């Protein structure tokens, strides 16, 4: 954030929290490391980046945060209990920050897409093909 601040005169108009990972497994098969990896990547990083960005977003006078969540944070999908939990946490964080930071003129929203074709998705093609076959 120090680099961002110096590059943009202490202001930030928008922060898009888009980091994420997914490990498809049955809930009983997840390890503590799996849990930590997914929650740290998907939720904790967005949480802490938002905290760090707050002063710059506030200085902008009309800052925006967009969290990239997932439909998995709204509906139940097999083999993704940790991923879904991280996205539910993100969805709730969005609501809390929107209320808390409205006084600072910071707008906070979540976008919750369905499956998006990425290189990570290619590694779990067998799983995702059953959910949504791609052409």
Give an account of the 3D structure:
The protein has 135 residues and is mainly α. The N and C termini lie far apart (40 Å). Helix 2 packs parallel to helix 3. A 3-stranded parallel β-sheet has the order 1-2-3, with helices on one face. The protein contains 5 helices and 3 strands. It is elongated. The protein has a single domain, classed as Rossmann fold (3-Layer(aba) Sandwich), CATH 3.40.50.
Tell me the layout of helices and strands.
Layout: H1 2-7, E1 14-17, H2 32-60, E2 64-68, H3 81-101, E3 107-111, H4 119-123, H5 125-131
Parallel strand pairs: 1-2, 2-3
Q: How many separate helices?
A: 5
Side-by-side strand order of the widest sheet: 1-2-3
**Helix and strand composition category:** mainly alpha
Order of helical and strand elements: HEHEHEHH
Protein name: Tropinone reductase
Organism: Citrus sinensis
Brief synopsis:
This is Tropinone reductase. With 135 residues, the chain is mainly α.
Distinctive features:
135 residues, 3 strands, mainly alpha, single chain, 5 helices, Tropinone reductase
């Amino acid at each position: 954030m120090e680099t961002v601040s110096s590059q943009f005169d202490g202001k930030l108009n928008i922060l898009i929290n888009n980091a994420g990972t997914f490990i498809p497994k049955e809930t009983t098969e997840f390890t503590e490391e799996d849990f930590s990896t997914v929650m740290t990547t998907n939720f904790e990083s967005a949480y802490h980046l938002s905290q760090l960005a707050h002063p710059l977003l506030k200085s902008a006078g009309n800052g925006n945060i967009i969290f990239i969540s997932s439909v998995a944070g709204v509906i139940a999908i097999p083999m993704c209990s940790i991923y879904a939990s991280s996205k539910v946490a993100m969805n709730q964080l969005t609501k809390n920050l929107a209320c808390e930071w409205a006084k600072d003129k910071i707008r906070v929203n979540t976008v919750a897409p369905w499956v998006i074709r990425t290189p990570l998705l290619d590694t779990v093609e067998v799983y995702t093909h059953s959910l949504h076959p791609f052409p």
